[in-house]
Amino acid sequence: MLEGLRATTGDDYPLNMTSLLRHAATTFPDNEIVYRDLNGSWNRTNYREEFARVSKMAGALSRLGVGAGDMVGVLDWNSRRHLELYFAVPGLAATMLQLNLRLASEDLGYVIEHSQASWVCVDESLLPVAEAHRDAPGVKGWIVLSDKPSDQIETTLPNVVFLEELMKDEPEEYPFEWVEEKTAAYAGYTTGTTGRPKGILYSHRAMYLHSMTVISSEKLNYNETVMLVTPMFHVMCWGFPQAAVGAAARIILPGRWQAQDIGVLAEALAEEHVTLANGAPSILTPMLEYYRSLPTPPDLTGLRIVCGASEPPLSLMQGFKELTGGEIIHAYGASETSPMATTNGDFPHTLPEMSEEEAWDLKRYQGLPMLGVDIKVADLDGNPQPHDGESAGELLIRGPWVATSYYNRPDSADSFEDGWWRSGDAGVICENGYLKLTDRLKDVIKSGGEWISSIDMENAILDNPRVAEAAVIGVPDPKWEERPVAYVVPKEGQEVTEDSVLDLLAQRFAKWQLPEKIIVSAELPRTSVGKLNKRQMREDYTSEQSN
Amino acid sequence: MLEGLRATTGDDYPLNMTSLLRHAATTFPDNEIVYRDLNGSWNRTNYREEFARVSKMAGALSRLGVGAGDMVGVLDWNSRRHLELYFAVPGLAATMLQLNLRLASEDLGYVIEHSQASWVCVDESLLPVAEAHRDAPGVKGWIVLSDKPSDQIETTLPNVVFLEELMKDEPEEYPFEWVEEKTAAYAGYTTGTTGRPKGILYSHRAMYLHSMTVISSEKLNYNETVMLVTPMFHVMCWGFPQAAVGAAARIILPGRWQAQDIGVLAEALAEEHVTLANGAPSILTPMLEYYRSLPTPPDLTGLRIVCGASEPPLSLMQGFKELTGGEIIHAYGASETSPMATTNGDFPHTLPEMSEEEAWDLKRYQGLPMLGVDIKVADLDGNPQPHDGESAGELLIRGPWVATSYYNRPDSADSFEDGWWRSGDAGVICENGYLKLTDRLKDVIKSGGEWISSIDMENAILDNPRVAEAAVIGVPDPKWEERPVAYVVPKEGQEVTEDSVLDLLAQRFAKWQLPEKIIVSAELPRTSVGKLNKRQMREDYTSEQSN
């Protein structure tokens, strides 16, 4: 790394989470934070009051002994206190650990232990989740989050303290010290399907820069209203509260919500005139149904919903826009990217003219990398592929808020390479700069040095109206390395022939890409959580061939 | 500074100027850069081509021996090459020094020598300016910027090379190395009225963060068109090209322009559909006159012009808006703040309702601090004043892009205090967070522990239609420390009495604030560049009193 003349600018001024909140509280003190409590009531506060509460909270935690280097777990919904902990804990140079309350209990126990959490904050409604880990080694005590007096709360947890009671006598100004910017402000664990969850520790610097990029990419400012829809304990939300506070936006916190509360979210989006929210197809699909069920659906013109997790179905994006005027913006990210890496907002004016159909198709792409993020797709030898929309490879990402290792997991070092994170996603970059992901890398079929997308082929097979399900896997081949094999499940009472499948595919795929074999089957193997189990299919196929 | 757990995010990924340009060139390669050459012709290029030219330029400079730690001066207009140098020089870990071609020749010589510039780039049209410094010690050679073949250029400069010729054979990809982010990317010198110019060295980190904040505050993105109106060698422009490139905005470069070219600027703003520009009252006032002179003034709705230097007159802001629909946004900054610190864009929705008059009045304030900037006004003992719109003090600023020292000027250490830069400007912060500057600190009258604004009082005196000019100074007073004295120049043929001035002031000012003395005078002393010379007035007054 080259070093030149040393500058005279404030280069030792650290990027700190506290500064984001202080800026909002000092410059936009009256801007609202609207939150829903456990009883379902909506309440209103503002940045001035929140900074005072964060100060009291930092005072209380500090008095408990929480300080630099401590890991503090949080089990909570999208509550006011959760937002406050986002700032109170990092403000002490401690690290706030997100605990995903939907993790399998065994995995949750692993996360608490592996992260060496010394204190865990638990919302009163989640005490049963916590109590399963009452003997977690290393935990000095449990901090209960509740509006109730402590004598109304029963729990089997040992060493319990009550945050609101601790806060009562703390002063409204806490003397926050500067925190070295590479200190971890937050920790989160992946919820991967294989192996134990892996932890990422996010620095103050990373989250400050991520906030600045989200603010500019998603056009946030103090006149916007942000609703944090996706659970704050889930990666899809992690970097959003900081961006909303950094922009000093008006914030709406829906508290605890479950599937049956979709109407509450849907009403609040309209009533609070939300302009930016986050979401996922699993939330937005029932929300659209809810709006459809209303005699008069609301006008949500001006609302953008950043939608991650998986590519939103066209019918969802189009239906939402047509019914409400609200826009669903697809974005891509992961635990390893804090979480945002690419977003598909306004089209650049330099794109050639498109038909409406082409435009909707492009809206399903993962979008363009945000300022600060470098992306490339690389072949198996690590060579970057040209931006031609055809040359597929694994997506690699680097940047100031992209992970370069997992916390205390030297066994996972091969997920990182030269400062790049290997996403495990396969796709292409188009001439217009757009990223289009197709498969998880492990589902791509590598044949004769070229890649065949299993998902593209499955979608093509599904165009046959008699087909209920399709799965394309790569099977070992001595000459071509791998060859595709397609499994097809007909709809009930329908018949599907191998030839009809092949004929359809031959219209779209080159001859060398066509499946070696098409297997019509009554059902496909699935994992315990209902996902297609392609690994199982590959093993079954191989063992049948060798019999 | 507290240090906690070390994060696992990419915290060693340095913030580099090259990354801004690479992001634009990779993701928005076709977005245009429109530039006007010395002949006055407009030409079009794009980010793809510009990155190739910056690469060739870096190759050429590197071959000359320019590298880490070198200072490279630039004497140029708002040209394409000037923009390219903004990236080619810092990309080599060298520092690009802005040379203000309007500086007095002696000061320019001082800057070249004090900065230890080893190479100086000069546009062919500015060779006479450079030739006055042909013997500058430390300069190894002069790099001529021109589209002409070298044999058509005559100069008395020694050791001359021609940049375009050096670039010709360089490859379109330069292997840019990472630059440590605290390395100085740019240098600029203040043009203060007292003493020698003082230098500030701006780090890659500072300018990257400044760019991100300007992008979000001024709502820049790839669908905006930015025109760099203020000279790129002037502090009011320094941080703007980087922000425009970081946002991958379409950029319009008007090249060399002088007062008589105001029509060219005005036409380009309209024809190129510019949405963001920078400017100053001295540019915008004649521009408004130009638009007024047209039979059909253009519709500039959507255009925002960030206007610094001094508070734009209400008549200018209002006139511009009414005639063209374009908006003038006042912003505040300085060489020491890279340059932006506060901006007065959209009003926060939390402000109480205002009459149109009140709204226009608020538009003249310096605005709200941008994300990343801390401001305070402090009394003479350094105590921060409350945000009440009344308690005046000196404006102090700190943040990642605010200077913490001057380059090799230990004699100026008292301009900085605990990481804060002392701006020398006096003003108040209002309850709504807005900064309102009133005076240069040296012009404030400190009386009995309170401050009296000389500018407020001057403006009040000017409300008398018979008054041509007014100046209020503070004179020493044994009891009150200072007392105000007002000088009044009547308009030609008019008479102004002391009593009429006092009567008018008594309506607006408290009794203790009223001037000790009102002196009606035919003219006021001025400096060589025409500014009111209050120092002279104070000296004259004091010596007259002691006679």
Question: What does this protein structure show overall?
Answer:
Chains A, B: One of its GO terms (molecular function) is ligase activity. Chains A, B: Residues 22-407 form the AMP-dependent synthetase/ligase domain. Chains A, B: This is Long-chain-fatty-acid--CoA ligase. Chains A, B: InterPro entries: AMP-bd_C (IPR025110), AMP-bd_C_sf (IPR045851), AMP-dep_synth/lig_dom (IPR000873), ANL_N_sf (IPR042099). Chains A, B: Residues 457-531 form the AMP-binding enzyme C-terminal domain. Two copies of one chain form a homodimer. In chain A, helix 10 (281-293) links the parallel strand 12 (276-279) and strand 13 (304-307). Among the domains of chain A are: 372-440, Luciferase, Domain 3 (Luciferase, domain 3, Roll); 444-546, GMP Synthetase, Chain A, domain 3, CATH 3.30.300. The model of chain A has no long low-confidence stretch (mean pLDDT 94). Chain A is of the alpha/beta class. Helix content of chain A is 28%, strand content 24%. Chain A has a nine-stranded mixed beta sheet. In chain A, strands 7-6-5-3-4-8-9 form a seven-stranded mixed beta sheet.
> DSSP strand (E) fraction of chain A?
15-25%
What ranges of chain A have pLDDT less than 50 throughout 5 or more consecutive residues?
none
Find the CATH topology of one domain in chain A. GMP Synthetase, Chain A, domain 3
Strand arrangement within the widest β-sheet of chain A reads 2-1-11-10-12-13-14-15-16
How many separate helices of chain A?
Answer: 15
Shape of chain A: globular
CATH class designation of one domain in chain A: Alpha Beta
What is the makeup of the main sheet of chain A? 9 strands, mixed
Assembly category: homodimer
Q: Which structural class should the secondary elements of chain A be placed in?
A: alpha/beta
Largest interface by Cβ-Cβ < 8 Å:
A-B, 85 and 83 residues
What is the mean pLDDT of chain A?
Answer: 94
Calculate the terminal CA-CA distance of chain A, rounded to whole Å.
Answer: 57 Å
- Helix content range of chain A: 25-40%
The radius of gyration of chain A is: 25 Å
Output the CATH homologous superfamily of one domain in chain A.
ANL, C-terminal domain
Number of DSSP E strands of chain A: 26
Name of the CATH architecture of one domain in chain A:
2-Layer Sandwich
Keywords (chains A, B): Fatty acid metabolism, Ligase, Lipid metabolism
Pfam families (chains A, B): AMP-binding (PF00501), AMP-binding_C (PF13193)
GO molecular function (chains A, B): ligase activity
Protein name (chains A, B): Long-chain-fatty-acid--CoA ligase
